[in-house]
Design a protein that fits this description.
With about 220 residues, this protein is an alpha/beta fold. It has one domain: Metallo-beta-lactamase, Chain A. The protein is built from 7 helices and 14 strands. The chain has helices spanning about 35-45, 65-75, 145-155, 180-185, 190, 195-205, 215-220, and strands at about 1-5, 15-20, 25-30, 50-55, 75-80, 90, 95-100, 105-110, 120, 125-130, 130-135, 135, 165-170, 180. It has a 6-stranded mixed β-sheet with strand order 1-2-3-4-5-6, with helices on one face. Strands 7-8-9-10-13-14 form a 6-stranded mixed β-sheet. A two-stranded antiparallel sheet has the order 11-12. Helix 2 (about 65-75) links the parallel strand 4 and strand 5. The longest helix is centred in the C-terminal third of the chain and has 11 residues, at about 145-155. It is globular and about 50 Å long.
Length: about 220
């Protein structure tokens, strides 16, 4: 499987996964901050056919281009069953396995940042949305977030993956596109917190709402 990262100027990350034999592809977390034509050009360059567009959660800081890309390509839109948007070709909850040629995409429930956060495991990698970031995690103070659920996602889901599993988050503001589970266990301060300290830290963490919060939630819920 080939993984192609895309990063917007504001640090939004999308990933194109291409099965090297069948040229079937999946696109994770596309954003309007990256031109749709950019995604389509990379698909065309690889002679790949888009099979799935996967949203890891309802984004609150940018507007998704998933609906437009689905319309342009005929790909199936994958979202959590609890995602507010009624438009889902595949409504998942975790535990599902999607076939991408010879590659299997495993859908993992990783709630905490939101109640409908999912991650996608494939070929020694995990695409974590905002649940696990490089050196941090997503916030838990809106969109039905839960510090308790996020602690469980960190330690009983991500923490049980092999240390050499590549981590691809949905955001990074320092130009990075990947890490590993082992590196995050070692250096991510959120991993180092005890259960009670994690809950206290996250429950007290109330940064300003994202600049595009109202517009993004409204658009991404359609």
């Amino acid at each position: 499987m080939e993984t192609v990262p895309f990063q917007s100027p504001r640090g939004c990350l999308s990933y194109l996964l291409v099965d090297m034999v069948t040229r079937e592809a999946a696109l994770i977390d596309p954003t309007q901050e990256i031109e749709t034509e950019t995604y389509l050009a990379v698909l065309a360059k690889r002679d790949a056919r888009l099979t799935y567009v996967v949203e890891t959660h309802t984004h609150a800081d940018h507007i998704s281009s998933a609906p437009d890309i689905v319309k342009r390509t005929g790909a199936r839109l994958v979202r959590h069953a609890h995602a507010p948007s009624p438009h889902k070709d595949l409504a998942v909850v975790g535990g599902e396995r999607l076939t991408l040629g010879g590659t299997e995409l495993s859908i993992i429930a990783t709630p905490g940042h939101t109640d409908e956060s999912i991650s996608i495991a494939a070929d020694g990698a995990v695409f974590t949305g905002d649940a696990l970031l490089i050196g941090g995690t997503g916030r838990t103070d809106f969109q039905a977030g839960s510090s308790e659920a996020l602690y469980d996602s960190l330690h009983t889901t991500f923490g049980l993956l092999s240390d050499d599993t590549a981590v691809y988050p949905a955001h990074d503001y320092q130009g990075r596109t990947s890490s590993t589970i082992g590196a995050e266990k070692e250096s991510n301060p959120r991993f180092a917190l005890t259960h009670d300290d994690f809950l206290a830290t996250m429950d007290a963490h109330h940064p300003p709402k994202p600049e595009l919060f109202d517009a993004a939630i409204a658009a991404n819920s359609l």
